[in-house]
Amino acid sequence: MGVPMKKIVQSALLLAAAWTIIPTAAARTCSTRVKKRGPDRKQIALTFDDGPDPVYTPLLLDVLHQYNVKATFFVVGEKAERHPDLIRRIQLEGHEIGIHNDQHISNWFLFPSAMNQQLVLAANRVSAITGQDVILYRPPWGHFNPFTLSKAAQFEIVMWTAIPGDWKKKMTAVTLAERLRAARSNGAVITLHDSGDTFGAYKTAPRVMIESLHLFLSDEVSAQYEFVTVSTLYTKQRA
After folding, report:
1. What's the whole-number average pLDDT of the chain?
2. Beta partners for 190?
3. CA–CA separation, 55 vs 53, rounded Å?
4. Which among 100, 130, 149, 154 is least buried, having the fewest CB atoms inside 10 angstroms?
């Protein structure tokens, strides 16, 4: 009995890996459709996931405006529909809006039809507010299943070069600012979060993130960079 059970467990683990870890690693490292670092020029894309949030997104937008930063927001579809005023403000202030599924659900837990529904609902909700098609997608937690690339074929999929852990309970503004400085480089795509209500996140973590942005964006080295949307970052400049 022991040997067959062992084989069953091994087979189950292999199947789980084939649905989760393997496609995620393959997409992140091998797929030409998954964008990460931009061209080698003094531009950085700050990206913000999991919003919009009625408390923290307005505070974040104030900071971005103060430092003349253009950013990209990967929003949750159902939150966008609940807070259309924030989506409109993001758009009006020159930022870019992508989607992060209709609900903050890992693609590891979605079969193809459910994932398709998540993408369609999220894109439709955002487009109904902005009047523009959604072209950018970031999978929640950066998780891919074997069907993610095909189901998201109409979108540009954006990952990151750095994700400094701003959602953690013990993170301080000073430590996070240091991590942001360490991540600062030509063509970097840095992922932060303007909502703390997702699984694994500390509820008030975005307040610390916003404080850290003041420290990061106000220093002399950051002043040497242009902070742009991901579409601007990836655009080839004419010679």
Report:
1. 94
2. 46, 162
3. 6
4. 154
Q: Identify the DSSP state of 184.
A: -
Residue 103 above 90 pLDDT? yes
The C-alpha atoms of residue 202 and residue 171 are separated, in whole angstroms, by 10
Distance of alpha carbon 98 from alpha carbon 134, whole angstroms? 6
- Looking up tokens 């020029």 gives 41
Q: Is 214 a catalytic residue?
A: no
236 pLDDT above the threshold of 80: no
Distance between CA atoms of residues 52 and 82, nearest Å: 9
Query: What are the structural domains of the chain?
Result: 2-234 (3.20.20.370)
Nearest to 58 by CA among 97, 98, 103, 90: 90
Q: Which of 49, 50, 53, 194 is catalytic?
A: 49
> Which residue is catalytic, options 102, 104, 193, 194?
193
Q: How far apart are CA 48 and CA 87, in angstroms?
A: 13
Report which DSSP code applies to 162: B
User: Other CB atoms closer than 10 Å to residue 62's CB: what's the count?
Assistant: 11
Q: Which two tokens stand for residue 98?
A: 């992508």
| pTM, to two decimals | 0.94
**Per DSSP, what are the bridge partners of residue 189?**
45
- What does the alpha-carbon distance between residue 68 and residue 128 come to, in Å, rounded to a whole number? 27
